[in-house]
Amino acid sequence: MTTPQPLQDRRIVITRSQDQADALAALIAARGGVPILVPVIRFVRLEGEPQRHAFDRLPAYDWLILTSVNGVQFFFDRLAVLSPAAKLPPIAVVGSATADALRERGIEPDFMPDTFTGVDLVAGLGDLESKRVLLPRSRKGRPEIAEAIVRRGARLDDIALYDTVPAEPDPSQLAEIERGVDAILFTSPSSVRHFYRLTGEPARHRLNEAVVACIGPTTAEAARHQGYTVRVVPPEFTIESLLEALSRHFEENP
């Protein structure tokens, strides 16, 4: 007799953007879970003179730091338009998902920290005194990594490539929450804030029984700030590790 998987028939809410949710939904379904897509964020491209200036002088940077899969996508999209022939500086990435997104473009990252946080990445870059560093990312990027770079004496260009804005899920998607859910996955502080804004009081009451799982400590902090009880944070800040940690939680708490 086949032993049921820990996520078997568990109703799991995915709050990622629509274009990023499908891969996660497939992983949940492969584990026997029931993915419920409630995309609460979307990404919009930003343009401006600081971008053009940074792309014009790419070879002059000592480090290019990419902190997310979205950062990789938006950076290379703008590179193709603004400076397609430019020689890239050494590239540092925060985590394995960002590294994989870079490798899909045929580029191997020059540095990735063992612990997937921006502060640990900066600590591993060596002497940054008077070095030029380009940090292209979301307009709402947290300040810690930029502050750490500046404290190390680097000359930083912190460039906004895209913005994270609220998405309005289909009413049928929100109705699925009313039917009850077993877990909610948060993969960014923005997804926490916008999900909280979208769910009314009846839904929030139902969600008190759901397992809140966050991809990392920054997202978990945002969830606790909104009043959620966070029960799952994986040791490695990746989607695969998040699902492993959620599976272990349900194994230990059937």
> How would a crystallographer describe the biggest sheet?
5 strands, parallel
Would you tell me the structural class of the helices and strands? alpha/beta
Provide the residue-averaged pLDDT: 91
As an assembly, this protein is single chain
Low-confidence stretches: none
Distance between the amino and carboxyl termini = 19 Å
Spatial order of strands in the largest sheet? 2-1-8-9-10
Strand content: 15-25%
The helix/strand order is EHEEHEHEHHEHEHEHHEHEH
Count of individual helical segments: 11
Structural Rg: 19 Å
Count the beta strands.
Answer: 10
- The portion of residues assigned to helices is 40-55%
Q: Can you tell me the overall shape?
A: elongated
Descriptive notes:
It is a single chain. By secondary structure, the chain is of the alpha/beta class. The chain is built from eleven helices and ten strands. It has helices at residues 18-30, 49-56, 69-82, 96-103, 118-123, 143-151, 171-178, 189-198, 201-207, 217-225, 239-252; strands at 11-14, 34-37, 41-45, 63-66, 91-93, 132-138, 155-166, 183-186, 211-214, 230-232. It has a five-stranded parallel sheet, with helices on both faces. It has a five-stranded mixed sheet with strand order 3-7-6-4-5. α10 links the parallel β9 and β10 (230-232). The chain starts with 10 loop residues before the first strand and ends with a helix. The mean pLDDT is 91.
Features of the shown structure:
five-stranded mixed beta sheet, 42% helix, five-stranded parallel beta sheet, elongated, single chain, alpha/beta, 254 residues
